[in-house]
Amino acid sequence: MAPKPQASKTLLTFADVHKRFVQPDGSVNTAIDGVSLDIAEREFVALIGPSGCGKTTILRLANGLIVPDAGSIRIDGRPPEPGPDMGFVFQAFRLIPWANAQANIEFALESLDLSRAERAERARHYLDLVGLSRSAKAYPAQLSGGMKQRVALARALAGEPRVLLMDEPFASLDAQTRELMQGELLSIWRRLTPTVVFVTHSVDEALVLADTIVVMGAGTVLETIRVDLPRPRLTVEMRADPRFLEQRSYLWNRIRDLVLTDPASEFFGRNLNE
Ligand SMILES: Nc1ncnc2c1ncn2[C@@H]1O[C@H](COP(=O)(O)OP(=O)(O)OP(=O)(O)O)[C@@H](O)[C@H]1O
After folding, report:
1. Could you tell me where the DSSP H helices lie in 65-112?
2. SMART domains per the record (predicted)?
3. Which residue among 23, 25, 29 has the greatest number of ligand 1 atoms within 8 angstroms of its CB, and so is best to mutate?
């Protein structure tokens, strides 16, 4: 695999970060065990790895929801704090059920120094950006899964964050909607240029979206892979491109081996070729 080239200015840094959790039975679980990462401004990074390897914990550390036990995390040289500079998009949409799409976004902007009219205008703008201006008055229960996820994306973007943290945001969507959302996200990323850290279990998703794929295992970074495939990548031709197929098969095998050799995995020790 090609080494990661010198990127532009580093925005988000993890330096030898450790994070442990005490479980209800008193045992200690090391979720993050010495992670160092440098993420450049405007870079699109995908985190991939077996279940429980620490991907979500990395996102929660990155936006300051939790703090490391050791090591340091810096965004532009300062410790992270939850706030509008950080957009967070979850797999579960987490919309307020009794508020319509417009109001869901406006609520998220309340901590900003904006007038009511400016909040409303901003919410309209971002709903429009994700193609939902006609659904501004719809309540979450009246929206499809893809539409709800777009409201959640608009809500995260409306704070105009420098860093967009996304935790398997498209995992619950059907294949077509997922691909449309991937295209939507890439076009927004090109226009607004946030730094994106995107957790996924899908090798294909990581390859079509990311500049860099970070492979994690058991709370550590195992490998950082530069994706040098040309963009746009959401094309039929790309899926047949030998370079795409080579990286796909490399990553697929890497992650399958991690799952089969992880004693904590349900699939530990299985021979999938039988
Ligand atoms: N609040 C918590 N309390 C106790 N243990 C936790 C907590 N949060 C995470 N963990 C543990 O830390 C480890 C890493 O969890 P994390 O959610 O970061 O993994 P993940 O790679 O995102 O998993 P998945 O792919 O299944 O979402 C797991 O063993 C998990 O049980």
Report:
1. 101-108
2. AAA
3. 29
How much distance in Å is there from the Cα of 137 to the middle of ligand 1? 36
- Measured between its terminal Cα atoms, the distance across the chain in Å is 30
Q: Whose CA is nearest to atom 5 of ligand 1?
A: 21
Q: How far is the CA of 58 from the centre of ligand 1 (A)?
A: 10
Distance of CA 150 to the CA centre of its chain: 14
Global pTM value:
0.91
Name the closest-CA residue to atom 11, ligand 1. Answer: 31
Q: Domains of the chain (ranges plus CATH)?
A: 1-85+162-274 (3.40.50.300), 96-160 (no CATH)
pLDDT (tens digit per residue) in 26-72: 899 999 999 999 999 999 999 999 988 999 999 999 999 999 999 99
CA 255: distance to chain centroid?
18
Query: Distance between CA 53 and CA 29 in Å, rounded?
Result: 11
pLDDT band of 274, cuts 50, 70, 90: low
